[in-house]
Design brief:
single chain, 264 residues, alpha/beta, Rossmann fold, 11 helices, 7% strand
Length: 264
């Protein structure tokens, strides 16, 4: 009797897996090729290619900070657009010289590639997605070293495909908008506290989207980028501030996307 019940449960479980519905997701890697094909045929012709560095973020934040932030932002943008999917995040970007090391490469775990290789990766990914039927391809980056390469690919391919109805949009305002920093200044914060890397701003944003990747017991005011990789004071960071910041970046990106996609 026990064996029969066990077999019955196993069959039910296998049936559930076999006939599971398409998940509620916008991420390409969580879909089958037929589900992506059907989505494109049904009008989902916009795709986001996110890029994010794998770099040091002080003693208190993981090296994948940018990946978690851009994944959260890209998903929100895709769902707001309603006809978009999100490609896997490119986490290898220019982060400084390798030999001799410079910038983030002076800290363990950082991975850097050349600007030329990064640009080629973005180009080939974009060309791949165009083949499948995507008409609007959005390039969005959450770290600094990848911005120029995305812009170059956007301009080059948009020109090449100008008569094919396919456009590549470089969404700069996700990364370059200063609306959050301006708001913080109005709340009484200072540029010294906010910092330019792994300080109040950076840490609050990660607390909002992936708090499990912040080591709160290792937070301390930055000793300088060349010392501990931190500028600013992460001890004043909160998830609430981070949610406000994510709203600012989302609003800036969406405004730019709407304008670009409405422009012939």
């Amino acid at each position: 009797m026990i064996k029969i019940q066990t077999c019955t449960l196993a069959l039910v479980f296998i049936s559930f897996i076999t006939f599971a519905d398409t998940p509620d997701t916008v991420f390409l890697e969580e879909l089958t090729w037929t589900e992506v094909r059907d989505a494109i045929d049904g009008g989902t012709t916009t795709v986001i290619i996110p890029t994010a560095g794998t770099e040091q973020n002080g003693p208190h934040m993981v090296l994948g900070k940018h990946k978690y932030r851009i994944n959260a932002g890209s998903e929100r943008i895709a769902r707001a657009l309603g006809n978009a999917l999100v490609a896997p995040v490119m986490t290898y970007v220019p982060e400084g010289n390798i030999d001799p090391p410079s910038g983030h490469m002076n800290f363990a775990g950082t991975i850097s590639i050349s600007r030329e290789l990064f640009r080629d990766l973005v180009e080939q990914a974009t060309r791949s997605l165009k083949v499948h039927g995507f008409k609007d391809i959005l390039l969005i980056g959450d770290s600094g070293g990848n911005q120029a390469g995305m812009q170059e690919v956007s301009e080059m391919l948009s020109k090449e495909w100008s008569t094919e109805g396919v456009r590549v949009h470089y969404i700069s305002d996700w990364y370059t908008s200063t609306a959050f920093e301006d708001w913080l200044l109005k709340q009484g914060e200072t540029e010294e506290v906010m910092g330019t890397h792994a300080g109040l701003v950076d840490t609050s944003l990660l607390l909002a989207v992936a708090p499990e990747h912040v080591r709160s017991d290792r937070m301390s005011p930055g000793k300088g980028f060349d010392v501990d990789g931190v500028t600013g004071d992460p001890t004043r960071s909160t998830a609430e501030l981070g949610r406000i910041g994510m709203d600012f970046y989302f609003d800036a990106a969406m405004k730019q996307i709407r304008v670009l996609m409405a422009t012939p």
